[in-house]
């Protein structure tokens, strides 16, 4: 009974949404400019990769 109510709510919520159709329109960032997207991805993934090295460097220089 609860599962049917949840299913009805989710399907009606999807049906009543007014999002634009097409690839990339449901993302929280723009994919129109590939060079800006590349730069943002390099910053995002690069910061995650560099973080442990920066922490180790900080700990070494602290002593």
Automatic annotation (TrEMBL):
Q: Which GO terms describe its biological process?
A: mitochondrial electron transport, cytochrome c to oxygen
Q: Name one GO cellular component term.
A: mitochondrial inner membrane
Q: What is the lineage of its organism?
A: Eukaryota, Metazoa, Chordata, Craniata, Vertebrata
Question: Where is this chain compositionally biased, Polar residues type?
Answer: 9-19
Under what name is this protein listed? Answer: Cytochrome c oxidase subunit 7C, mitochondrial
- Family in the record: Belongs to the cytochrome c oxidase VIIc family.
Gene3D superfamilies assigned: Cytochrome c oxidase subunit VIIc
Where does the record place it?
Mitochondrion inner membrane
Give the multimer and partner information.
Component of the cytochrome c oxidase (complex IV, CIV), a multisubunit enzyme composed of 14 subunits. The complex is composed of a catalytic core of 3 subunits, encoded in the mitochondrial DNA, and 11 supernumerary subunits, which are encoded in the nuclear genome.
Q: What does this protein do?
A: Component of the cytochrome c oxidase, the last enzyme in the mitochondrial electron transport chain which drives oxidative phosphorylation. The respiratory chain contains 3 multisubunit complexes succinate dehydrogenase (complex II, CII), ubiquinol-cytochrome c oxidoreductase (cytochrome b-c1 complex, complex III, CIII) and cytochrome c oxidase (complex IV, CIV), that cooperate to transfer electrons derived from NADH and succinate to molecular oxygen, creating an electrochemical gradient over the inner membrane that drives transmembrane transport and the ATP synthase.
Please tell me the species this chain comes from. Pagothenia borchgrevinki
